[in-house]
Amino acid sequence: VFPQGRLRRRLRPSPREQAAFLQVSSGGLVSRPFRARPRIRDPRVPESHTTVVKAAISSYRKAIDEGLLLKLPFTTIFEYLQLLQLVSTAMNCLEHHGMFYCAAAVSDFYVPWESMAKHKIQSAGGPLNMQLNQVPKMLFILRNHWAPSAFCVSFKLETDPDILIQKAEAALRKYGMNVVVANELANYKDVVVMVTSTGKTTVSRRSKEDDLEEQLIGLLVKMHSDHAKQSNPDQET
């Protein structure tokens, strides 16, 4: 018969369960008893994962305590662009020793502040038409005005592999970046292409246990060091 006490579930009942409930509620018996879905238990984290997470949290807290990491939270595109300007102009004094790793996926469109509704939009007014403006491209301003001597790295993500490198090379020329990291959405965790004015370098993850970012950052650090040495040959980086 229909299992008692199991009608209230977080998951939607299957068609078979619904038919059984209707049959029981009408005074009949379920012709084919079914097995209720097992309850989802709390997931257990493997010990190896726990060790890795603890080490990452310890390194994170150590960086904050030593003043090596400054968190600047933001929510809106307005806050992000304002913080980008403040940070960039503050780092301008570092000249070639400064490095910008612009990996944020900034929205392509936004609603201008003056166009935002001041009060709750009423549904009685009928269909809603919204016009979005393009978010201004700030990489060019960062490179040419806010911190012109810094080492700048930006990212280009595409879903079409046929245009990925072309778009990355165009961004390199248009915004004056030192490096554009090109990645495809389908395999962005496994392979990236570092596009520079002198060529392209493919970085692939060695194994499932390795992080692609570790290899990428190592190469970028070396490129930044070379950039600083070439700009200031008599100074140490």
Automatic annotation (TrEMBL):
Residues 85-209 form the DNA/pantothenate metabolism flavoprotein C-terminal domain. SUPFAM superfamilies: CoaB-like. One of its GO terms (biological process) is coenzyme A biosynthetic process. Pfam families: DFP (PF04127). Coiled coil: none annotated. InterPro entries: CoaB-like_sf (IPR035929), DNA/pantothenate-metab_flavo_C (IPR007085). GO terms for molecular function: catalytic activity. Belongs to the PPC synthetase family. This is DNA/pantothenate metabolism flavoprotein C-terminal domain-containing protein. It comes from Aegilops tauschii subsp. strangulata (Goatgrass).
